[in-house]
Amino acid sequence: MPGPRHQALVAVFETVPELLLATLRHDPRAAPLLPASPPSIEVVPDTTVLAPVELRADRVFILSTPQRRVAVILEVQQRPDPAKPLAWLNYAAAALRQFEADNAVVLVITSNEATARWASRQSVALSDATFTPHVMGPDALSTITAESPTVALALDAVELATRRRRPDPMAVADYLERLRDLDQTTSRAYAELALARLSLDEQHEVKTIMTTRTKPRTILDEELERGREEGLEAGREEGREEGRREGARRQAEQLLAAARPLLPERVMRELEALDDPGTLTKRVVAAIAEHARHANPG
Question: Whole-model pTM?
Answer without folding.
Answer: 0.66
